[in-house]
Specification:
With 135 residues, the chain is mainly alpha-helical. It has helices at 14-33, 37-60, 70-79, 84-105, 112-133, and strands at residues 6-8, 62-64.
Length: 135
């Protein structure tokens, strides 16, 4: 299998990407408070992707390149030695990425229960990411 499309990024930028992820997560929390369910969903997905970029930058000095966010999940698998906990985290990331097109472009109206489910996935993924990032 060919290597995932990636670009080099200085490892020092890892915490900047983690900060962006936190910013997206906080935005999702605000959107949830006001019942902007689809907006919250988009921000949840982007938070997960930014945490992924932070991890791959810290571990390997690279991040996924392009619009196909599934590549970010493949890249994390390529550069991070995943134990059982890491595999579970990767599955959560993949589930969130699968939601991206639905929440963003399908015209599907998300409801509170959809976002609560996505939020739970993000929280679990974020906890793993923070452990890997050492923050």
């Amino acid at each position: 299998m060919p290597k995932t499309n990636r670009i080099k990024v200085n490892r020092d930028k890892s915490l900047d990407y983690a900060s962006v992820a936190d910013n997206f997560a906080k935005g999702a929390e605000l959107a949830k408070e006001f019942g902007y369910w689809n907006a919250a969903g988009v921000l949840i997905v982007h938070a997960a992707i930014a945490y992924t970029d932070a991890i791959t930058i810290k571990v390997a000095g690279v991040k996924s390149r392009g619009e196909d966010h599934a590549q970010a999940a493949r890249l994390i698998q390529e550069v991070v030695a995943l134990d059982e906990t890491g595999q579970k985290a990767l599955n959560k990331l993949r589930r969130l990425i699968e939601e991206k097109n639905l929440v963003s472009y399908s015209g599907e109206i998300y409801q509170k229960n959809d976002i609560e489910r996505m939020w739970k996935l993000l929280e679990r993924y974020r906890n793993w990411a923070i452990e890997i990032l050492g923050i």
